[in-house]
Specification:
Blueprint lengths: L2 E8 L6 E6 L21 E2 L6 E10 L6 E10 L7 E2 L8 E2 L4 H4 L5 E6 L2 E2 L22 H8 L3 E9 L6 E9 L4 H4 L4 E3 L14 H4 L5 E2 L3 H11 L7 E6 L31 E9 L13 E3 L10 E4 L6 E8 L35 E7 L3
Parallel strand pairs: 3-13, 4-9, 7-17
Antiparallel strand pairs: 1-2, 1-4, 4-5, 6-8, 8-14, 10-11, 10-15, 12-14, 15-16, 15-17, 18-19
């Protein structure tokens, strides 16, 4: 026997898609482009707030028979990096650039959350009509969550205005190389308190929703039925991990440290009275020399359904570069105030018969501000 028949069932589809496989030769099945399966392979609902976990069942059958030799169950979670949420405080006042990462999260640590997904709940007949029931709450073990998120990393993006050029720049830094309980040092939690005491389940941010390649169109009634079947409590549930945003810079905790240092951007390189924006990102690959990840990156969503971010401002109060105070009568009394408190400014000029005699009672004061 040189061939095997592969029967592929997706998301409890009642009939299979069949393929003839030549033994010993690789067979590529592209779910996005396969003429039969592509109509059944979804990543998220059209409201972009319910991730969908797909179930594939592969049966290996003797050709022209119903004899199943082997089978495999394959679970597929797509676009995970687009469906992550952050507890980064949202719509907060613009504060000064913080000197610790704890200040960025108001001491709450960095939580990254994944909303309760659909699992294997969409069943189709041959004309792709939904004929199944919804099984919304998907309960996953700690090790399963670790497996599906093992390749995704967390980092931060910093946007700032360069002091010397006046141009806007972006740089990046890594938070953790894996979104797993091992990397976090804590187990996955399941509940509503990713936001603290606020219960919410917003849709993913627009930038990420636009990238979802295959969304399942729910009618308003179907959508409301899902929420009703799930219940008010489970609807808001997230799986989440908590990370402690430890600084990379060894000078952390010193008064001269700012979070920009972790991006390789010294505080003095940021233009005064301009904003910096800190955004958590999810990516695959690595961040080298604070450049953007080569394979791209995606944003996390906050509790308002917006791109998670915090804005801070460099508010350096010392905007004066120099103060020069001296005698206006510099020919006779060349003294200049040099201390930060008080000093003598020369002697009285007795040459009161000259046209410049008033200079001996005059001070020359020059203030220079730092360039903005």
């Amino acid at each position: 026997m040189n061939n095997i028949t592969l029967k592929m069932f997706i998301n409890d589809r009642r009939t299979s898609a069949s393929y003839e496989l030549e033994t010993g030769h690789e067979f590529i099945l592209d779910l996005e482009n396969d003429s039969i399966l592509r109509c059944h392979f979804y990543h998220c609902n059209n409201y972009a707030d319910i991730p969908i976990l797909n179930h594939l069942r592969a049966e290996f059958v003797i050709p022209d028979t119903e004899t199943i030799l082997e089978y495999r169950n394959i679970y597929i979670a797509r676009d995970l990096q687009l469906q992550l949420y952050s507890n980064m405080p949202a719509r907060e006042p613009v504060d000064s650039i913080p000197t610790s990462w704890e200040d960025v999260f108001h001491g709450a640590g960095f939580k990254v959350g994944y909303p309760t997904p659909m699992k294997f709940n969409i069943q189709f007949d041959e004309d792709h009509t939904n004929v199944g029931t919804y099984t919304m709450a998907t309960f996953m073990d700690n090790n399963v969550l670790d497996d599906i998120f093992n390749n995704i990393r967390l980092g931060y993006k910093l946007t700032y205005t360069d002091d010397s050029s006046g141009t806007q720049k972006t740089v990046f830094t890594e938070l953790t190389s894996r979104i797993t309980s091992v990397a976090s040092g804590e187990v996955w939690r399941y509940g509503v308190d990713i936001w603290g005491n606020l219960s919410a389940r917003p849709p993913i941010c627009e930038e990420n929703a636009a990238k979802l390649s295959n969304k399942y169109s729910l009618t308003v009634t179907q959508y409301e039925n899902i929420i009703a079947q799930l219940g008010a409590s489970l609807w808001r549930y997230f799986y989440y991990l908590k990370f402690r945003p430890e600084p990379i810079n060894s000078s952390s905790g010193s008064p001269n440290f700012h979070i920009t240092d972790d991006f390789g951007v010294p505080y003095y390189e940021i233009k005064n009275l301009t904003n910096i924006i800190v955004e958590p990102i999810a990516y695959v690959g690595t961040i080298a020399d604070h450049r953007a990840p080569l394979l791209g990156y995606d944003y996390l969503t906050n509790r308002y359904g917006e791109r998670a971010s915090r804005t801070f401002k460099k508010q350096e109060t010392d905007i004066i570069q120099s103060i020069n105070i001296r005698n206006a009568d510099s020919d006779y009394n060349p003294e200049t105030l040099v201390s930060g408190s008080h000093d003598w400014l020369g002697n009285y000029d007795e040459r009161d018969n000259t046209s410049d005699a008033h200079k001996d009672t005059s001070l020359s004061i020059t203030v220079t501000l730092r360039e903005e």
